[in-house]
Amino acid sequence: MNAPIFSFEGVTGGYGGGIVVNDVSGYVNKGEVLFVLGRNGVGKSTLLKLLFGYLKLTRGHVRFKGNDIGSKKPEEMSFLGITFCPQERVVFDNLSVLENLVLMSRNRDVTPFREYFECFPILADRLTQDAGTLSGGERKILSFVRALGEERQLLMLDEPTEGVQRENIIHIANLITDRKKSGSTFVIVEQNLDLLEALGDHVLVLDQGRVMLSGRADIVSREDILQHLGV
Amino acid sequence: MGSFLGRSVILLVGLFTLPTLFGDFWAYQLGLYFLYSIAALGIGICWGQAGFLPLGQAMFLGIGAYLSGFSLIHFHDSAWLFLLLPSAAIAPGLLAFFFGLLIFRGRVESGPYFALITLALSLLTFQVATSWVEVTGGFNGLGGIPGLPGIAGFKALYYVIATVLTISVCGVAWLVKSPIGVIWRGIAENEPRLTFFGYDTPLLKALAFGISGLLGGIAGVFYAPHQGLVTPNLAGFILSAELLIWTAVGGRKTLMGPVIGAILVGSLTAELRDVVPVWELMIAGLFICVVLFMPKGIAGWPEQLFRRIFSHSRQEEKVTLAARGILTAPKLELSGCSLSLGSVGILDNLSFQIDEPGIYCLIGPNGAGKTSTFNAITGAVYIQSGTIQLDGERMSGLLPNNVALRGLGRKFQVPSIFPNLTIAENLLVAVWGGRCSLKDLFSYKPLNWSSTIITDLREKFPFLNQDENSANELSHGEKQVLELAMSLLGEPRLLLLDEPCAGLSPEETEKVIETVHWVRSTFDTTIMVIEHDMALVKDIADQVIVMHQGQVLTIGSVQDVQKDIRVKEVYVGVSI
Amino acid sequence: MDPIALTIALNVVYEVTTLFVIVLGLAIVFGLLRVMNLAHGEFIMIGAYSAYFCQDQGWPYITAIPFALIIAAVVGYLIEFTLIRHLYKRPFDTLLVTWGLSILLRELIELVYGKGFQSLSNPIPGSVNILGEPYPSYRALVMVIAVVSAIVLWAWYRRSLTGARVKAMVENTELAQAVGIRVDRLARHTFVVGTCFGALAGVMLAPLTRVEPFMGLDYILTSFFVLVVGGIGTLLGLTAGAGVIGGVQSVVANLFGETSGYFGVLLIAILFLWLKPNGLVSRS
């Protein structure tokens, strides 16, 4: 079995010297999805920020395609083939929907995005409007489509379905499934258990910054997870 | 107080001996820079203390000088001068105060815009001075101004100016040390937080601006007889900029910094500007360095040294205020509250009521609107429809400080304290809010206040005893606790805590929970807590309010909420 | 058409278009990057002195353009790299540091050229016929260049993505990094483009005004007022601001004299700062 395309061990760190994430390890193979679950405030977003280079690692290693990327800055990640969709402030509110999509392209041509407009016609309708006028769920969709358009090998998504309507969550799940087949890998922070059940290959459950439960999604049971989510 | 007087006498004596050392004429030249330094003290108060940048300080100098010059020319030997001259100093002060009120209470939020407005105003003053030829003499200025009555000759005027400088320095020193100085420094660091303690910060900033105007006016009053001529340049942009640079290089945050800057740099520049061609270049470079690396300026280290040599702990009587005891329970009612930003809905017809004292935990997934609810209740954000009432009185639409004064306390999610103030000062700021009238702020007495609550909290959390330490040095957990302590000191009837245990170790969390229970039982306070940690919620909540998408989903006891299927769905999603 | 009215109208157009050119550099640096560059006027001064230098050497006037651009680019690059880039999140300090820089630059020029003013000779003397009335050729050329560059810039800005990337970077730096924008580099280049436009304005205006070390002061103050009134961040705002300020200044000056013109501008600026600080064309 090949080594996982993306792995992290003993990741520890937080904001301004405080420790929020403590000794978290995990991995995901190429073409698979790793879900990171946990209640609010347990450190899921902080973990992603540590992995993507927004926060400095106090301890731990992050590896992508065999290389240590623990000290890389976020701007360098795109060249490495990794993209990120944050949980908040997910799009550029002051730019139009179109500009948000083509920002890093060669020109303002949206043809590459046509296939996504079929799933999400709302984007085509609001192409010239400022992204700030979209609802929360619509912005999440825009952010997701932007990430897909970048065609990178590893996509880190922080709560991609928050505020998104049911039908569109299904589209998102299908698109992720298709991408998996083309070889893209995903790390997804979520609170939606059903997305996990449809797509997940690995799961990591966090509480108070530590790993409570980890394993392959088909082995770990829903009850176990719910228990650790503590609701 | 004794050493304070002593230091002033030393200053005065020092200034008085200068003519003997350096000759009368040189002393006379220096007198001009004494006047500039009085104006610079004003910049020190606005910028160094209260944290806003006045780019047009010379305008007050100019106004004072024109008024004084005009009075001296036309009321030469009359007794009217005793009224007119002080008015010439006070007028710019009042002007500054009212302008300040207008601007700070208006829509202008950001500091740089205030700076630009003062710049534009000073340019306007310059234009008026140049154009209103009949009164001001136009571009050539107001000339032939006689000396002050009874004061003949350079030497006598020098002593008068030196005395005025000493008195001004004393006045500013007193302000800096008194409670209002502490509040100004708080404004510079974290103005929004102060409003939640009940302070009317626009008024306090306007006061600072008014005092700086007064100082400029005083300088102007003596400028006119000293120079004999007042030209529009006195009110102009160039002088304002120079005053700013002298203040910065001298050290804007120190007391003597502006004075040293104006006298040293100002007079040296006048002497050397033609002799050393690169002098102005060097000063510009020094200015840039000071802004970037040394906000304390050249007076910074000497002042710290000075303080260490001459300081003594004030062993004055501490006045401990008794807690006000159990207060009337608040009735909070939100009905139909809605708020959206653009097309994003934040609160959607939010309604709930709290009648009884107790601990209410507000829970819900991200984006549910929990912090926004707190923001709406405390006046940080205005709802667009619906009402919020406290004890039947309408609160929606009130400014945060007015809400706070009605008995609301708030603790923020990210610890919001005053890092560069000492721990003692942080606590005092919280104690004063709502208890100190404006007059009290100018007296030294509130500096000695303490409260029985502080005494109790110090037992629980020993680090609060480190009075003189800067709050910056505290760990994250200690900052959380400090802010919690501060939110209690106003003795609120309704206390809003936003994730009080975020980032705390288990031991710290336990202590905080204990404190929350203590507050609840001692003061019968009504407490609302936003929390994510279910274990915590189970521990403290009397009732749980579950929010989702800007609305209340359900209210009930912990057990009820745990059994509710809808709550589970909201947290873990609907099946697809 | 009545010759006096025509002259006034042409003067108004002249004021507005030259104001546009003057403020453009600051609109980029302040409007896009949010850097309050008080040294902007000094870059115009650098451009003007570069033109003087070239003319003094006997070179054709057009050489002033690349000469001024190189100097402005080098100075701008140095300033951004050593000072400005540490201050993006500190607007007060930026204000102060750039003010110190403006004094520095002024003093340097004074050391080389002295305090007095230089006059340049008109590169295109004579006059041209506009609607039957003679109008100085060089002024006419300046207006034409200003209008043409405004149109070209607008067209380019609409098509290119660079402006969008700058705005994105300023609005949401973390997300900009995530999509792969090299934030440091983009900020630096934007700053340098702004200073270069300032120098270009100086080259254009040098033959029409007194070239002296203090010339930048007037420009910087008026520039900020234009941006306050017009609104920052858009070309439309810049045009609106230039229109209002330039229009008020020249109309009032033509009717009541220079001083009143300046008064009018000041009053409008104060009103806007107080009541409508986001300007006429605000994005939010």
Summed over residues and divided by their number, the pLDDT of chain C gives a mean of 89
Which chains share the greatest interface?
B-C, 37 and 33 residues
State the name of the first-level CATH class of the largest domain in chain B: Alpha Beta
Query: What is the spatial order of strands in the main beta sheet of chain C?
Result: 1-2
Helices of chain C, by number, come to 11
Q: What is the CATH fold-level name of the largest domain in chain B?
A: Rossmann fold
Helix content of chain B: 55-70%
Compressed to H and E, one letter per element, the order of chain C equals HHHHEEHHHHHHH
What is the first-to-last residue Cα distance of chain C?
Answer: 43 Å
Rounded mean pLDDT of chain B is: 86
Q: Indicate the proportion of strand residues of chain C.
A: under 5%
What summary fits the major beta sheet of chain B? 6 strands, mixed
Oligomer: heterotrimer
- Please state the structural category of chain B: alpha/beta
* Number of continuous helical runs of chain B: 23
Number of strands of chain C: 2
The helicity of chain C comes to over 70%
N-end to C-end Cα span of chain B:
75 Å
Q: Which descriptors would you attach to this protein?
A:
heterotrimer, A: 231 residues, alpha/beta, Rossmann fold, 6-stranded mixed β-sheet, 4-stranded antiparallel β-sheet, 9 helices, 10 strands, B: 576 residues, 2 domains, 12 strands, 57% helix, elongated
Summarize the structure.
The complex is a heterotrimer of chains A (231), B (576) and C (284). Helix content of chain A is 34%, strand content 25%.
Please provide a written account of the structure:
The complex is a heterotrimer of chains A (231), B (576) and C (284). Chain A has 231 residues and is α/β, with parallel strands linked by helices. Chain A has a single domain, classed as 3-Layer(aba) Sandwich (Rossmann fold), CATH 3.40.50.300. Chain A has nine helices and ten strands. Chain A has helices spanning 44-52, 74-80, 97-102, 114-119, 121-125, 136-150, 166-181, 193-199, 222-229; strands spanning 6-13, 21-28, 33-37, 59-64, 67-68, 82-85, 154-158, 185-190, 202-207, 210-216. In chain A, strand 4 and strand 5 form a beta hairpin. Chain B folds into two domains: 2-236, no CATH class; 332-572, 3-Layer(aba) Sandwich (Rossmann fold), CATH 3.40.50.300. Chain B has 23 helices and twelve strands. Chain B has helices at 2-22, 24-49, 58-74, 81-104, 111-131, 133-136, 154-177, 179-195, 201-227, 237-250, 257-272, 279-293, 300-310, 370-378, 400-405, 423-432, 438-441, 452-460, 476-489, 506-523, 534-540, 558-563, 565-572; strands at residues 319-321, 332-341, 344-354, 359-363, 385-390, 393-394, 408-411, 449-451, 494-498, 526-530, 543-548, 551-556. In chain B, the strands form three sheets. Chain B has a six-stranded mixed sheet with strand order 7-9-10-4-11-12, sandwiched between helices. In chain B, strand 11 and strand 12 form a beta hairpin. In chain B, helix 1 (2-22) runs antiparallel to helix 7, helix 2 runs parallel beside helix 7 (154-177) and helix 2 packs across helix 11 (257-272). The mean pLDDT of chain B is 86. Chain C has a domain at 18-215. Chain C has helices at residues 3-32, 40-56, 64-82, 91-113, 137-159, 162-171, 173-179, 183-205, 215-230, 235-256, 258-275; strands spanning 127-130, 133-136. Chain C is globular, with a radius of gyration of 19 Å. Chain C starts with a helix and ends in a 9-residue tail after the last helix. Chains in contact: A-B, A-C, B-C. Chains A and C meet through helix 2 and strand 6 of A and helix 6 and helix 7 of C.
